[in-house]
Amino acid sequence: MDKKKQVTANDVAKMAGVSPSTVSRVISNNPRISEPTRRKVLKCMEELGYYPNANARSLAIKKTGTVGIIIPTTSEDYFSNPFFAESLRGIIRGASKSGYDLLLSTNTEKGEELKITKKFVRGSKVDGIILMTSKVDDECIEYLKNIDFPFSIIGSTDDEKINQVDNDNALAAYELTKHLIEIGRKRIAMIVGDMNLVVSKKRIKGYKKALSEANIDFDENLLFSGSFDEKTGYDYGVKISKINPLPDGLIVADDLVAFGAVKAFEDLEINIPKDIAVASFNNSVLAKHSNIPLTSVDINAFELGREAMNLLVDAIEDEVRGEKITIPYNIYKRESTKG
């Protein structure tokens, strides 16, 4: 007597007119599947006599149910910065809706991202990875791309095969610089993050473009870079205060850094915005409720995180590669840049 051919998830997918990954999602009760699709797949499973047990479900979906988050700096620095906390909140929201748990890297030193990434992958700890930043010649991106491991980035890269979500940082910096120029500022300084970060490069590009269009020469002595922390802002605030003539405008890459610079200006009795107008990025609570409310770009960090998680789920479950999402931003003009 011939043995009956074993029914597979591929057979169910063919009958239902869906992809095998959709069948896997139905099997794992993934909330991303619509109710009509779920009913159709379940009906086909019943007609074909396909009833996967727990082990079969695990094999069908081939996953740990966990995704890794690579934090770009030490844990202490990470949780002190409102941007990272807010973007992580978005990731958590997306992970919850998709049925995934999160595994956060616990870097003790800067520059350990690749080491942690390899540990996650080689130890089969996660099904995919989210990189919280993108660097120029990023080793993590190259490693994950070369082994075709599912991942997404919060940031930008010129590689069209990478899943990425970001703002138009060049345009945002251009518009912010243009705003300062429109209120009469001509010597505009800028504090960005690490020069190896793609976001720093793009914001400098927008800043330079606005200066050029206004026939203002770019002065490299007015461009500063450093860590995303309050101390960096304070130290550069003191340094800027010693420049003669004093810059009459300042654009800062992060509210936390701007908060430090403003504190330095206040300690040195430099008036904001009369002596120097200050504008920043992230529109965090620091910007809204500081002694002098800061003009700031809301980059929608929550949505950046949520969409990065959604892209990663697509990469894991549908093998999607090369998707790019641009999150809109808003500039909130406050007292720190009043003309």
Output the keywords:
339 residues; alpha/beta; 434 Repressor (Amino-terminal Domain); Rossmann fold; 3 domains; 6-stranded mixed beta sheet; 14 helices; HTH_LacI; transcription; LacI family transcriptional regulator; Lambda_DNA-bd_dom_sf
Describe the overall structure:
- The relative contact order is 0.13.
- The protein is built from 14 helices and 12 strands.
- The chain starts with 8 loop residues before the first helix and ends in a 7-residue tail after the last strand.
- The chain has 339 residues and is α/β, with parallel strands linked by helices.
- The longest helix has 18 residues, at 301-318.
- Residues 54-61 have low confidence and may be disordered.
- Keywords: DNA-binding, Transcription, Transcription regulation.
Topology at a glance:
Blueprint: H1 9-16, H2 20-27, H3 35-48, H4 54-61, E1 66-70, H5 75-80, H6 82-98, E2 101-104, H7 113-122, E3 128-131, H8 139-146, E4 151-154, E5 163-166, H9 169-182, E6 188-192, H10 198-213, E7 223-225, H11 230-241, E8 249-252, H12 255-267, E9 277-281, H13 285-289, E10 295-298, H14 301-318, E11 324-326, E12 330-332
Parallel strand pairs: 1-2, 1-3, 3-4, 4-5, 5-11, 6-7, 6-8, 8-9, 9-10
Antiparallel strand pairs: 10-12
